[in-house]
Specification:
single chain, mainly alpha, 0% strand
């Protein structure tokens, strides 16, 4: 077996630089549309904002001046619709959460009451098992749901 002598120096290590592989960017809507249809409607930025960018409105005004007012009116109508839909969805989510909590309360209470009844009827271990199974099931469902919302 070779041993290293105390008087010798270790060979210097060379650092190797890693080259980054080129990252392929996903196709944007415009390039995807160009690939599918062979025609590109716009090559500018795609926005999801409530109103078009100023430069696009200016170009539209140069082509058809009265269309700018129509676009702004349609944008206001769409914004009102979006706010109504968001409010409606938030209400349904709130109701869903309340119903879920109420259902969990009923299931937990039924499990504990059922386990208590079985325990007082002469089967204490069976009663404890029933109550513990129900509480454990609710805890697991709660924790799994919480990790789904975080991820």
């Amino acid at each position: 077996m070779a041993t290293r002598q105390s008087g010798t120096k270790a060979a210097p290590t060379q650092k190797t630089t890693l080259k980054k592989a080129p990252v392929k960017k996903p196709a944007t809507k415009v390039t995807l549309r160009k690939k599918l249809t062979g025609v590109s409607a716009s090559t500018g930025q795609v926005t999801d904002g409530p109103i078009l960018p100023i430069d696009q409105l200016e170009r539209l005004y140069a082509i058809k001046p009265d269309a700018v007012d129509w676009v702004i009116q349609q944008t206001q109508i769409e914004a009102e619709h979006r706010r109504e839909e968001t409010s409606r969805v938030n209400s349904f989510i709130f109701i869903e959460h309340l119903l879920g909590q109420f259902s969990a309360l009923l299931i937990g209470a039924a499990g504990i009451l059922g386990g208590s009844w079985v325990a007082t009827s002469g089967q204490p271990w069976a009663g404890v098992t029933i109550a513990a199974a129900v509480i454990t099931g609710l805890a697991v469902a709660y924790l799994k749901g919480k990790t789904k919302r975080v991820a």
